[in-house]
Amino acid sequence: MPKTVYTPDEARRAQNEAKARYDAVNAKHISMKFNVKTDADILSRIQKEDSVQRYIKRLIREDIARNGG
Question: Is 25 helix (H, G, I), strand (E, B) or coil?
Answer without folding.
Answer: helix
